[in-house]
């Protein structure tokens, strides 16, 4: 029998055990149904005030004039049958239909019937693309270009959409190392065009021959190569395409890497040399690094802490006074401080690190701002099991928990309990998809507060 996952919660300390669930939510609006014949018209008007009043109920919503566009593929409208007539909602729906770029014009009409008002959106469709052609592509398949362009026969004939498709095709060539590639729209950007035709000048493919670094002293070339994407491919054959946008992103990545090591004034530039060889261009990419001074932590202090002394909080920190600033160590210390508070009931404590630069070059003070909040105990514990036919007893989950109502909440125990539930193989767990038993908690409500203050403490084992 397949195992089902189990959401488990507790209102103050709420526990989730989510499973892989398929939720099918069916929503509809009257326009998505097959239109029935209109009743005899008693009044038709353009201005809403003449055809409908705000207290009138909406009997039906229809879209007319859509010969090629399926209603099911349009966005959901705010105006629906059963609602009170709302002119502002109808105007918003008109804008929504316009934003689909499938219609040249959208005009609302109102028909009064004895039961209320029928709202009709009269649309005029844009012409459809009769063909989409790619001319000049030799190194890229038409199939791959069609996938990147995201337009096809039957789509709306919209110059804006055609231009976006041209831009995506050209960007795709640049990403694959064809920096000189140019894509021109021959047809599809003028009134009266029946389809879209893209003329492609691929130019030469450009690949990375070598990537080097100048000015780096704190990290080796091999270490910096692990931080970037612009580098030679395997055996100079697979991968290694040169893309300017990727190079720019690598500059930002290297800058962030140096900042994380305390080089807050580091600057990274790049130089690109091109070597022409047959039908391919090779590039030698050099990242030029000016590291600047490396900042040292002068003092570590705490602000807002009243439950724990600064000496106690600082005792096990990895980043201490006199050491070079290190982002990874600071992040680890933040987790440690949060565990100190969260392990003693202060589960909503807000701790933030604030590096403060001093007038003296290369020096900073590291201040941890602490908002401790209240101390919490476990309130009522609820177990929620999802699945078509959940069969796992709640006591099976409760027996694997180390906390009971009335206990001081310990965030570390919650994590251990969550791992224990995942390892039990009772519930579906897929770490790659983020699925599996989870434990979450929220601030208490009235009933939870009473349970936490006056807990009944029978053992869970054996309960049904």
Describe, in plain words, how this protein is organized in 3D:
The protein contains eleven helices and 15 strands. It is α/β, with parallel strands linked by helices and 464 residues long. The strands form five sheets. A four-stranded mixed beta sheet has the order 2-4-5-3. The chain has a three-stranded mixed beta sheet with strand order 6-8-7, with helices on one face. A hairpin with a 2-residue loop joins β4 (103-113) and β5 (116-125). The chain is flat.
- What is the 3D shape? flat
Instruction: Give me the strand/helix succession.
Output: EEHEHEEEHHEEEHHEEEHHEEEHHH
Within CATH, the superfamily of the largest domain carries the name membrane protein fhac
Strand content: 15-25%
Largest sheet: 4 strands, mixed
Q: What is the share of helical residues?
A: 10-25%
Number of strands: 15
Q: Kindly report how far apart the N and C termini lie.
A: 22 Å
What's the arrangement of strands in the largest beta sheet?
Answer: 2-4-5-3
Q: Under the CATH scheme, which class of the largest domain? A: Alpha Beta
For the CA atoms, what is the radius of gyration?
32 Å
């Amino acid at each position: 029998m397949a195992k089902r996952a189990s959401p488990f919660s507790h209102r103050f300390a709420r526990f989730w055990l989510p499973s892989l669930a398929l939720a099918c939510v069916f929503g509809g609006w009257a326009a998505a149904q097959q239109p029935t014949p209109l009743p005899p018209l008693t009044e038709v008007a353009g201005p809403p005030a003449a055809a409908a009043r705000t207290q009138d109920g909406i009997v039906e919503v229809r879209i007319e004039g859509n010969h090629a566009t399926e209603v099911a593929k349009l966005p959901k409208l705010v105006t629906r049958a059963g609602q009170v007539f709302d002119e502002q909602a109808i105007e918003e729906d008109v804008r929504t239909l316009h934003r689909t770029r499938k219609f040249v014009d959208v005009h609302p009409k109102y028909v009064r019937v004895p039961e209320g008002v029928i709202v009709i959106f009269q649309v005029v469709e844009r012409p459809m693309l009769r063909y989409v052609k790619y001319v000049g592509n030799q190194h890229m398949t038409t199939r791959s270009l069609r996938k990147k362009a995201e337009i096809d026969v039957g789509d709306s004939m919209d110059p804006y959409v055609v231009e976006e498709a041209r831009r995506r095709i050209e960007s795709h060539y640049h990403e694959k190392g064809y920096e000189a590639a140019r894509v021109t729209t021959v047809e599809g950007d003028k009134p009266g065009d029946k389809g879209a035709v893209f003329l492609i000048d691929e130019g030469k493919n450009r690949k990375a021959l070598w990537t080097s670094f100048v000015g780096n002293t704190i990290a080796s070339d091999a270490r910096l190569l692990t931080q970037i994407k612009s580098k030679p491919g395997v055996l100079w054959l697979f991968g290694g395409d040169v893309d300017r946008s990727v190079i720019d992103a690598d500059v930002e990545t290297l800058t962030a890497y140096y900042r994380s090591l305390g080089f807050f004034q580091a600057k990274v530039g790049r130089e690109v040399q091109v070597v022409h060889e047959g039908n391919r261009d090779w590039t030698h990419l050099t990242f030029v690094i000016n590291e600047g001074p490396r900042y040292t932590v002068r003092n570590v202090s705490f602000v807002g802490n009243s439950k724990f002394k600064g000496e106690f909080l600082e005792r096990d920190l990895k980043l201490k006074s006199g050491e070079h600033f290190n982002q990874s160590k600071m992040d680890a210390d933040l987790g440690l401080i949060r565990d100190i508070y969260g392990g003693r009931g202060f589960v909503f404590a807000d701790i933030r690190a604030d590096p403060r630069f001093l007038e003296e070059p290369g020096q900073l003070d590291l201040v941890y701002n602490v908002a401790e909040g209240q101390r919490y105990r476990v309130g009522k514990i609820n177990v929620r099991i999802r699945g078509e036919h959940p069969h796992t007893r709640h006591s099976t989950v409760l027996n694997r928990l180390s906390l009971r109502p009335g206990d001081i909440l310990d965030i570390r125990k919650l994590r251990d309990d969550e791992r224990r539930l995942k390892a039990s193989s009772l519930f579906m767990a897929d770490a790659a998809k983020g699925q599996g038993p989870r434990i979450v908690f929220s601030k208490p409500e009235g009933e939870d507060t009473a349970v936490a203050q006056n807990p009944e403490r029978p053992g869970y084992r054996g309960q049904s």
